[in-house]
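User: Please predict the structure of the protein below. I'd like the answer in structure-token form so I can feed it into my own downstream comparison script.

Assistant: Understood. Taking the following sequence of 474 residues as input:
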Amino acid sequence: MKSYLKHYIDGQWVDSQGGTRHEVIDPSTEQPVSEIMLGSQADVDKAVAAAKNAFKTYSQTSVDERIALLERIIEEYKARIPDLAAATSEEMGAPIGFAQMAQAPAGLGYFMGTLAALKEFEFEERVGKNRVVHEPIGVVAMITPWNWPLNQICAKVAPALAAGDTMVLKPSEEAPGNAIILAEILDKAGVPAGVFNLVNGNGPVVGAALSSHKDVDMVSFTGSTRAGIAVAQAAAPTVKRVHQELGGKAPNLVLKGANLPEVLPPTIAGVLANSGQSCIAPTRLLVHDSQVADATNVVKGIMEATKVDAASVMGAHIGPVVNKAQYEKIQGLIQSAIDEGATLVTGGTGRPDGRNAGFFVKPTLLTDVTPDMRIYREETFGPVATITKYTDDDDPIEMANDTVYGLSATISGDPAEAAKVAPKLRAGLVTINAWSGGGGTPFGGYKQSGNGREGGKYGIADFMELKTIVGEPA
């Protein structure tokens, strides 16, 4: 079992001050795979103090210096992709092939995209006789999730470094190993002491301490809407910036007359990728009643062709979900749908045949799902799709928007027709015959899916303050 019992503070690996040990469970085996030390208020105070002190000098570095730093990080990151993938796979259950091809490279993508954006970023502009400048915001607290851990960590660390900020990261205690390796990468690349700090811990202690800390200027959080509300409440007394990417319940609006065998596979892929543990998974299919039977057959075939296996096995399959709590939540939502009158087409509750351990979920399709059902409303975060029919008398756009969330929305059908629908969907990301976003574009949500954006020049801007300077000599 790997031990990660130290925090990275002020350029050094240091012992926790009053922390407690925590075992990380391999979701494929339900056995411990690593251990960390959950941090304390004292650990947070030490890390924030280091970041605050480092900000005095790092905020004054030139753009060229930050470009060179990002370039060094990218090279060190590339060399550690096998290690990053292995840690991610064994801790959160992504199949090792998927971790190597998607999970680990996702973080690299954010560093590369930020580097490109930094080279073009306009740090100041003239407005009449006045000057408006972008300046580093200060000390940023970063609280990140387990489902795409490197993606979400690097979506914050990269723009913060580009902006001239300093930071304290609290990665998820469910998947901390990849963050430890990233700290090693940043250290080797020459990130100055105190600029990047890592304190492992849980939300109620370390997350709350960071969110409420008087010397933290901004908190950037990715996770559930419930937890995001708690972060915002903790941050409110200090009136710091709160930057959030929260939950989702993405619709997949299937346009009437769509070529289903052509357009559904690339969008249903988003329901299955990462075992359904993606906040933009388009799980809520809205299908015209004339095509419900055909859509059911297409999706059923995809689900039943999807293999489930351990994360350590190389191949094209999905792995387990991250932990027992998530497994039980998904089981409960599937059962609630059945109890409320939905039709189970394939999959269902319980583990796949032949498995008596591990948090494995059957790829599942439910039809006859109506908007009043829990599974239509709540984020499932598993390989589960639902089909809800609409008729000529219904407004499918209104049905798609009928959610408290607004992170993403998918349209399946003729691209020209879909382009007319896209402006009417209340979501930060709208995809047509696809499910994931594009490089260099802003990522974030409407409504209860959060506020602020990550990615490209938009991400850099969100980690900066704006200052207006009046009265300078011409």
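That's the full token string. The CA atoms of residues 131 and 469 lie 5 Å apart.
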